[in-house]
């Protein structure tokens, strides 16, 4: 009986430790690595040009978009997996497309911190007023979630809106192919 209770106590402690580990909040240092900037399309275009020579994956999303929130962790995973090889992940919040009174930069930042999004994060200030320039730059991102992939020369080579639709594995393979190309 004593051995069984000791085993159960040990399992309980391990479970509690795992639960605490998964739900821990960010340290101040980690939180400081997660930032978000409110930008216009021209500033987003500059961020893409500034990363020429790298492969870029842009995720357009919003805190009020359930599929976006569900898929966002994949962007963080890709960043962790491929950043050292030359992938730059960028997130572009489309929160301002929702009800204006519900928009909160702090809400977007909190979400990004919770997801540990330590890559460039942007909030488009006027996506509806800059629609033409935005679509020209990253494709029809008004149906979110939306992904756009750029090669090392800064050319947009695929978007989730233009297709073909890719599974996570197919997108990873496409990223790996682009990373294998010389800058």
From TrEMBL:
It comes from the Bacteria. Pfam families: AhpC-TSA. Residues 15-180 form the Thioredoxin domain. The keyword Aminoacyl-tRNA synthetase does not apply. InterPro entries: AhpC/TSA (IPR000866), Thioredoxin-like_sf (IPR036249), Thioredoxin_CS (IPR017937), Thioredoxin_domain (IPR013766), Thioredoxin_ResA/DsbE_sf (IPR050553). GO terms for molecular function: antioxidant activity; oxidoreductase activity. SUPFAM superfamilies: Thioredoxin-like. Keywords: Redox-active center. This is TlpA family protein disulfide reductase. The lineage of its organism: Bacteria, Pseudomonadati, Planctomycetota, Planctomycetia, Gemmatales.
């Amino acid at each position: 009986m004593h051995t069984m209770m000791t085993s159960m106590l040990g399992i309980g402690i391990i479970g509690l430790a795992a639960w605490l580990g998964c739900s821990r909040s960010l340290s101040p240092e980690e939180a400081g690595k997660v930032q978000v900037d409110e930008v216009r399309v021209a500033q987003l275009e500059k961020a893409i040009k500034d990363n020429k020579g790298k492969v870029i994956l842009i995720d357009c999303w919003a805190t009020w978009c359930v599929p976006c929130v569900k898929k966002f962790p994949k962007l963080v995973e890709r960043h962790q997996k491929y950043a050292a090889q030359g992938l730059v992940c960028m997130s572009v919040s489309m929160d301002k497309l929702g009800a204006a009174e519900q928009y909160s930069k702090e809400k977007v930042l909190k979400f990004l911190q919770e997801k540990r999004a330590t890559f460039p994060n942007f909030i488009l200030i006027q996506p509806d007023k800059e629609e033409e320039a935005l679509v020209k730059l990253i494709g029809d991102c008004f149906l979110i979630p939306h992904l756009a992939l750029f090669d090392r020369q800064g050319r947009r080579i695929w978007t989730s809106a233009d297709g073909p639709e890719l599974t996570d594995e197919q997108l990873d393979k496409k990223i790996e192919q682009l990373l294998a190309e010389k800058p």
